[in-house]
Amino acid sequence: MTPVNTAGPTRRRRKTQSGNALVEGALTLLPLLAIGFALLDFPLALFIQNTLQGAVREGVRFAITQQTGTGGQDAAIKAQVETFAMGFLTDADITAGTSSFSVTYYNPNSSLTTAVTGVGSNGQGNICVVSATIKRKFMAPIWQVTGLIPFSSTSSDMMEAPPNGVLPGR
Known about the structure:
There is one protein chain. By secondary structure, the chain is an alpha+beta fold. It is built from four helices and three strands; from the N terminus they run ααααβββ. Strands 1-2-3 form a three-stranded antiparallel sheet. α2 runs antiparallel to α3. 18% of the residues are buried.
């Protein structure tokens, strides 16, 4: 019986397939990373939207009780929303234009399309509307989105009577 030489074909096959593992690894790893980042993006987007919604709601709750700070009621409302926004809404982002924030008052007895301004606009019975928008970029490269994705939230409620009958300055 003659021995069979198995080393020749195996060695030749190893030489021709030496780069296959690297190519197969790269072709497998890239889609898996994209899916992994997407699995992080969806919950993060939900978290950002829910956090912003909760922060704006807390801002309206703060506003209707006629609380104020040193910079006026609108500044105090903004500070309250920024506190509850957990760093997603900041003064720096608002100044840079990547985020926006507004406090608007409406008189329910007149047209709700025209905002009330000036002294007494934050009076009892008026409707306070707090709105915020933040923009963030997704991590996943599979969305083909080059810009920022906006997250917006708006909340409103009717203003209560001010404590001691004195309206805080806006």
